[in-house]
Amino acid sequence: MAARKASLQSLKSVAGAVLLALGLVILFANLDGVAGTVSSFAGISAHEGLGVFPALGLAGLHAVQAYTFDQRGFISAFLQILVSFWPVVLIFVGAVILRRALGRRSAGYGVPVGSSSAGDQ
Question: Residue 101, exposed/middle/buried by CB under 10 A (0-12, 13-18, 19+)?
């Protein structure tokens, strides 16, 4: 029974690590596409050479303008951006599974906090 429990804990930690790594790989692979989507939504080209903060500021102002005057277009573009970030869900689920699996595993190895190894004195 203990071997089965240890095997299940190992499987959970491996599954969490795989989901976390897969989500990170997909997210970083799609960052170029996401940057293109955001820049096209903001109405700026990626070749203008703007800094990150001015580009984000312009994107924010354009988003406010789009929300004010064209709410349907804003919602459509916003949903496209959200769909681009679906790998974040994989990262989050993988991190939660990995944290739970490693937390349970480390609880079995360590000395509880507040107890002394020398005994009661």
Answer: buried
For 40-75, the pLDDT digits (tens) are 665 655 555 556 677 778 878 888 888 889 888 888
CB within 8 Å of 73: residues ≥ 6 apart: 66
Instruction: Give the C-alpha separation, 59 to 99, whole Å.
Output: 35
Q: From residue 48, give the alpha-carbon distance in Å to each of 30, 77, 85.
A: 21, 22, 25
Structure tokens at 71: 């709410």
Note the pTM of the prediction, 2 decimals.
0.49
For residue 55, give both structure tokens: 């580009």
Angle at the Cα of 81 from the Cα atoms of 37 and 34, rounded to 5 degrees: 40
